[in-house]
TrEMBL record, chains A, B:
Region (Disordered): 223-242, 253-273
Record family assignment: Belongs to the TYW3 family.
Lineage: Eukaryota, Fungi, Dikarya, Ascomycota, Saccharomycotina
EC number in record: 2.1.1.282
tRNA wybutosine-synthesizing protein domain sequence ranges: 7-212
Protein name, as recorded: tRNA wybutosine-synthesizing protein 3
Entry's Gene Ontology molecular function annotations: methyltransferase activity
Pathway it works in: tRNA modification; wybutosine-tRNA(Phe) biosynthesis
Keyword terms of this UniProt record: Methyltransferase, S-adenosyl-L-methionine, Transferase, tRNA processing
Described purpose of this protein according to its UniProt entry: S-adenosyl-L-methionine-dependent methyltransferase that acts as a component of the wybutosine biosynthesis pathway. Wybutosine is a hyper modified guanosine with a tricyclic base found at the 3'-position adjacent to the anticodon of eukaryotic phenylalanine tRNA.
Amino acid sequence: MQDSFAQKKQAILNDISTNGPDNLDASPKGTIDEHCIAIINLINSHRDMVTTSSCSGRVSVYLEGIQNKLVSKGNEGRWIFVTHDTMNLEDWYKTIDFQYVQEYPSSSYETRSILYKFEALILHVKCRNQSMANKLYSVAMNCGFRESGIGSNYNVAIRTSIKLDVPIGYLGDDNTYRCFVTENYLKYITNVSFDRFKENFKKLEQLYQAIEKYIINLSEPSKDSNDDFDESKCKSFKSKGWESIEERRARMREEGLRKKEELKKAKDAAEST
Amino acid sequence: MQDSFAQKKQAILNDISTNGPDNLDASPKGTIDEHCIAIINLINSHRDMVTTSSCSGRVSVYLEGIQNKLVSKGNEGRWIFVTHDTMNLEDWYKTIDFQYVQEYPSSSYETRSILYKFEALILHVKCRNQSMANKLYSVAMNCGFRESGIGSNYNVAIRTSIKLDVPIGYLGDDNTYRCFVTENYLKYITNVSFDRFKENFKKLEQLYQAIEKYIINLSEPSKDSNDDFDESKCKSFKSKGWESIEERRARMREEGLRKKEELKKAKDAAEST
């Protein structure tokens, strides 16, 4: 017989396990970010925690809606570009039909602004009780996620302040995207975003290790506890290409070795010319 | 005899009450923002809450420190410009010796970036117990302070996501401030900041009213409780020009009447031409 927390956790895991191209969630992307999967699996392996939403960090270009209030997401606001992956970031602005202009609206209320944003990792974790929520909150704060907090019903939000929020243009009367910064400036903030992503993934890795060290390894593993939730759901993550902690470690090690090898080759090539 | 929370509250109030030009706090400004004083007084009038830090919202231009990590505040990072007040915002960039250039560093790691930021209201409130913290958190969330959270020891952080975070330049090798956006762009983001301030103060006002309605007016007033803290400290706020709730209401009413009168005059003048 499952207790109330275990029942909720099971329902959430059922939802996550069927998430995919055929069953999109409410986020603009519709599926869970690949970079979050390892930490989601780690957190969900603990019987007293379950992840309820996540974003591994992203760059987005957002056209604001018709304004009643600032940065409104309703009223026809829409994403012009979104990526969670540095792979898709280079030259993103060349894929958008921007008209580069030197005109500015006199106020952001008058027109619909276009904003370039870098948003860092955010994780929401439902905990079984106050003690679990406090523990997770402390671990996150100590990893530098200084904007974290505990909400109602032991929901912990893990947040950091790595960000960019840059007005780059507005919607013209003829519905064109007017860009009042130069392409070189867009290139520069894109480069800054690469650095932000790097910092962001470093912090994600630190958080992973801290949760593993100070929470998972210090707790009774959920397998030893009475069968609170369906282990087969975890297996169904894996069958969809989700990594276990061990698989992730192996992949990271392999990637590290490959990069080292590539670096050596590049160095050798440079020395021989 | 004071309980432990009341003792801590008293110590914090002692600190606040002597804060001023001769006794600066740790913030870059060194004193409490005028715009926060009414809500600080309101919150501190409740026996189960005390404000521990506050910023009413600000525009700042920040030169990053020598980089080991991103957006480092240590290592010689410094503010080039800070204001909490729209009065000081217009044409701020004309007071800084910017050299407008069209060159960009290839990465933000290489140089010390100059960032233009709008940061919204943030309030930290220490509560007596979980129940008080939950209540304050709920009120803040319902006012749209969606990044609020409860930390350890019933400390509530009240935060919203109104922001700007714009790279505008870097420190040249010759220690000059190189600005790679145009003066017109600086003017534009300054205008956007006026709108952000407006939205920010609207939310501050909403928060004030909600705390008053759902917390203060529904609680026993602290005067009726056993004398937990020194009332004379509250008087010392007033002697420094701090407003009581009643004084603030009277001033707002007066200002409203004056604005109405001015609007009527302007309308009459327009109609007579």
